[in-house]
Amino acid sequence: MEAGGRVLLFPDGQQGSFPLSDEWFLRGAPYIPDHPLSTKVPRQLLLELQHFDLAGPVIPNVAYLESITPILMLWFTHDLRQVDTQGLVFETQIGRGRLLVSALRHTSTVHAAGPWLARVFAEHVATGPLPQHVIEARKIAEMKDTIQTQHIDWADKS
User: Which of 2, 23, 142, 146 would be a feasible disulfide site paired with 95, CB 3.0-4.6 Å?
Assistant: First the structure.
């Protein structure tokens, strides 16, 4: 990616992936900001289907908000003293390349929304405008450490 590659990543929670966590969607609310994809993907579609047809694990405790351009996130406050931000779909620049991450459910033979969104996201990564935010080299190193640590912690809890 740093040399200009474009990646659409569907995290699986395994080694080298963003960690995943099952969450109760009624603990907070979705955040769907303006984004270039808003012209192709209706906000109402994301709002209504993120906890049904597209539901799956989330990327927990996103602590790198300043380095990503959110597309669909969740914020949780229920029974918490702070706001917890959970990742569903976001993108960022990494060097000259770009990364779009989607934790939504894209593999369904029953519901058309997930596979359709995967195609829209792939087209966006290939031809869309660059994300507004950049992950700097220092932050990439920190995230790699966090991904490894969170993966180990997550695996130990199962």
Answer: 2
Answer whether residue 13 is part of any domain. yes
DSSP code string of 35-86: -GGGGTS-HHHHHHHTTTTT---BB-----GGG-EEEEEEEE-TT-SS-EEE
Residue 100 φ then ψ, to 5° = -120, 125
Q: What angle do CA 15, 69, 111 make, to 5 degrees?
A: 70
Position 46 in a domain: yes
Distances (CA, A) of 89 to 69, 103, 110: 9, 6, 22
Q: pLDDT tens across 96-144, in order?
A: 999 999 999 999 888 899 999 999 999 999 999 999 999 887 887 776 6
Domain-located, residue 1: no
Cα 12 to Cα 20: distance, rounded to the nearest angstrom: 7
pLDDT digits (tens, 9 = 90+) for 43-75: 999 999 998 899 989 999 898 899 999 999 999
pLDDT of 36? 97
The answer to the question of residue 142 being in a domain is yes
The parent domain of residue 131 ranges over 6-157
Distance CA 141, CA 22 (A): 26
